[in-house]
Amino acid sequence: MASSLRHRTARVLLLPLLVLTLVLWWDWNWFKPLVERQASAAIGRSVSIESLDVQLSRTPLFTLDGIEVASPASMAEAVPLARLQRLALRLSLRELFSRELHILKLHLQQPALALQRDAQGASNWALTLPVSDPNTQPWLVQIDALAIDDGRFSLLDAQQKSDIRGSLHTGESNGSSAPLLLATAEGRYGTEPFEAKLMAGSVLRLRTPEDPYPVDLQLTSGATTLSLQGTLLDPLQFAGAKLRLKLQGNDLAALAGPTGFPLPATPPYRLEGDFDYRAGLIQLNRFKGLVGESDIAGEISVLLRAPRPLLTATVRSEQLRLTDLAGLIGADPAPTPAPGKASGRLLPSSPINVPRLQNADVRFEFVGKLLLGERLLFDRLSFSLQLDDGVLRATPIDFGIGEGALRVYATLDPRGDSLGLEARAELRRVDISRLMEKTGYRGEGRIG
Question: What pLDDT does residue 344 have?
Fold first, then answer.
């Protein structure tokens, strides 16, 4: 009996001793190889971690030191994509059962992001993410607060001949007691000097209509300036946006490089509208402005999809100067001809950039109510353009002449490095007197 009691007592005392020994000798770095493998598989890149630690509680604190994300092995001269001296996050465990990753606070110390692209177009930021199961409920990520100490980032793009470097951190600004996310960048984009400044909130979640998330972005690249100011109710989902976008510059074609869209050459422009983003759809709503001497207004959206993004635009103009749209057919907008050297051509003889036409799909609707210009045969202009996989269709282009119109249907089809053209034109109820008065001659009747 006494022996049995001693055995039971020994077992009771052994359990806390084992727990104490485990606590004293436990090292969370035993899980480091597993975390590295899981992170590497998730982004398709080699991820390394120097050390890992966890402080257990109802809201455990995870600390990872010396994180490095490698660039692709094919880019031998590229530096690591990202380095981070320390990542600390405090996690709420309760939401894990409903597939929600609720991070109470995320703290990044000395993060460094180095984006690189070589002359052949290979980049170190294109990650290979695993394909998610459409039948599985996706994880929802929520971050209450963000803190960044001494962050750095850079963009070295041999293809665009760009070199931009910047910094970011959280702190107070302009006497505000609320913590802000502050970022600055400067350098060169293409051949133009580049500069940008961002002020935004660092508390990301639990916003209210009375306390929305502030955004103030100012960007300058050469003669192009962009301003985005306003608020968001849910910055992580970019929802509840009340953002005002202002954009101006000397030529819309200067945006073709950074946006990837085949934008036409234009005279100086100024645009302003309401900016929004949701589920891969970028929108500029209720915009208005000037392109050259022509007023424009309407809606523009960009759907980010594979294999090419889709740009959809509905634009109208009360008073349109035709030369302001010359870039749509490849001509110089508002050209200044040399005295005595009129070419007599309606269409330009300069080549059209075929690869650029294949960068995106486009749906463009335009209505110009009144055409301005001396000795102009047309009163108004409307057209519908569709660009699909490099094939450009006009269905149709309407030049209004009094009650009638000259209607043109055309298709531009890439054939190697050149374009094939198929076109037909129709004259409908054109008043000859209206047609001839612009030429200084007289006539009567209709053409159809």
Answer: 41
